[in-house]
Design a protein that fits this description.
The complex is a heterodimer of chains A (502) and B (160).
Chain A: E1 2-6, H1 9-13, H2 16-25, E2 30-33, E3 45-49, E4 53-58, H3 66-73, H4 77-82, H5 91-94, H6 116-121, H7 126-136, H8 148-157, E5 164-169, H9 178-185, H10 187-201, E6 205-210, H11 215-230, E7 246-251, H12 261-268, H13 282-285, E8 292-296, H14 297-309, H15 311-316, E9 318-319, E10 322-323, E11 325-332, E12 338-343, H16 348-355, E13 365-370, E14 376-378, H17 389-394, E15 403-408, H18 413-427, H19 433-447, H20 456-472, H21 476-480, H22 482-491
Parallel strand pairs in A: 1-2, 5-6, 5-8, 6-7, 11-15
Antiparallel strand pairs in A: 1-3, 3-4, 9-10, 11-12, 13-14, 13-15
Helix pairs in contact in A: 7-8, 7-10, 9-10, 9-11, 10-14, 18-19, 18-22, 19-20, 20-22
Chain B: H1 3-10, H2 16-24, H3 32-44, H4 52-59, H5 63-72, E1 84-89, H6 92-95, H7 99-110, E2 123-128, E3 140-142, E4 145-147
Parallel strand pairs in B: 1-2
Antiparallel strand pairs in B: 1-3, 3-4
The chains are: A alpha/beta (502), B alpha+beta (160).
Chain lengths: 502, 160
Amino acid sequence: MKLQISDDSFARAMGSESVEFAIKTHGVDLTRNGSLGLAWLEPIVQLLNGDQEIVSEFTNVEVKDVPKIVNVFNGDPASRQIHASVTTTHPFLTQQHRLVFDRAGVQPPLKLPSFKLLEDLLSQDPNQIIAGMETSGLRGRGGAGFPAFIKWRTVADTPADQKYVVCNADEGDSGTFSDRMLMEGDPFKLIEGMIIAGYATGATQGFIYLRSEYPVAKEYLDHALEIAYSANLLGQNVLNSDFSFDIDMLIGAGAYICGEETSLLESLEGKRGQIKVKPPVPAIAGLFEKPTLVHNVISLASVPGIFEIGPEAYAQLGVGRSTGTMPFQISGNVKHGGLIELPFGPTVNELIYNYGNGTLSGRPIRTVQIGGPLGAYLSEAEFDTPLTYEAMAEIGAGIGHGGLVVFDDTVDLKAQAEYAFEFCEIESCGKCTPCRIGSVRGKEALRQFSSNNVDARTLVVVEDLCEVMEKASLCQMGGMTPIPVRSAIQKFPEDFISEQTT
Amino acid sequence: MSKKVRQTNTGSSPIPSELHSNLRGFVDRVGGLMHALNWLKGEYGYIDSSWIPTIAETFNISQAEVRGVISFYHDFKLEPPATHTIKICQAEACQSLGARKLTKDIEAKFGTNLGSRTSNNQVELEAIYCLGLCAVGPSVQVDDRLIARATPDSISLSTE
């Protein structure tokens, strides 16, 4: 029997470190595990029989619960029954389809998993792997939803003396934490995905660009990379194959824009993270003008699963051209917030009510913002939209990084629209005028009205700014800021009551 | 702010030759300047303007370039930090759980505003945009400590 405590940013922020300390002061040692993504139950302490069988489980543990836990550990069989596992039978978890997060929270994050699959792939023809990627239908999970295999093929087919794989771990969107959870809960999954990507595209150097706001992820990745090198998973002749691959990590410095791939690559070169005009796309001329495969964490971490179950089987998951599984994240004013990996296709309603269990405040849900700060605010009528790339595009929204932020009926959509402009102002790289100036003007235009009593002419100005930003910005920062603004105005006009109509 | 105050806040400032030898190892690494500035931030909490000539010389780039990189990123600051930094998430998921009010309450509790510090240099309040704790917001970071479901009462400067 041993005790295990969840350890990721959720768990630590909910107090796991003081619980761990308190348990240790009783002379009981315990191991750390990743989080299962049932964030509202953190921190979680489990009594294990062997490595994985959960005998007892304690959720929302506080320091005052520690004596009880220690008693159960020290062997009162009856009490073990009382504290049976909650997580393993919880519908929040049992209804999921975990492919990317199959190991996270189940196996300790720094325990080397089996690399039989990787060994097998490293003996295959790289073109066959890219063909598998095409069959799988995987689309970039970072936001744009671009078919992954096109990037892979482009990098592979562009002749160069050096190619790179860059993992975009600059997960800055509010309401998203799947990258963080993967890096903290199963870093080897990401490393494996990067190695496969490197082998298939002919890249021998990988980089992880990690945002500085994720110190716990850095801690886990540092350890994982070290372990990977000593296990010959990285470095010369990966797993005794002919392929060599290295991974270095760079920590960002608090710039949201560095999640944009050209900006990220500039930053990775040690420069200002200013965006660059595309084309050329990074797959042709990226880092140091060399062919560079840029993917976010979940895209790369989806790769091992694709080959584990087979690209055809992967393509069967989901709906239409939205294939595979997506780690959705529900957050904000929600009772049960956390990570929900499912094949594409559940409706917003299913996630926020069946999984999320309504608002934390107990008030009615008024809107859900989907896809981060550049995502649309949905009206209640849109909550029955299935979460697929296509269905979301039809209502002028996007899945983005898979984050759903729930708001109750106290939300003021005018304030949210104003904030969308403000965030763009704060995070704009400043290179193009529509984004740099448009964001400031938009904020000012809405801010001059202290209450929801916006002058009709102001809304014309705001729409004008939105049009210029959408059409003339160099990247999606300015180009997509109009999405939350317009959706707020169009779907919640009562929050922008014009003087002329009152 | 005078040099003397900086030194009392952050320990002794490195002399140029020391700085040069500490940073030299980053020069050949991809993204070397970012690594170097992150290292300085970790070591001293900020990047002193007086170090810029040495940084530029070490990397064989212009001082303007070094300043350009420092000024681009929110994390790189030219002033030493206060004794404690409280970062309050201002992003949407935390807004939905009252981050705007929480910010006001924390401002009142510590007697300074977001983006400012107390006159005794003890506490600095900073805006942060997402700590990735969105499912258990509102989120606050006090120095290195993450706090979920933050309330004005749960924000304290001691570690226990």
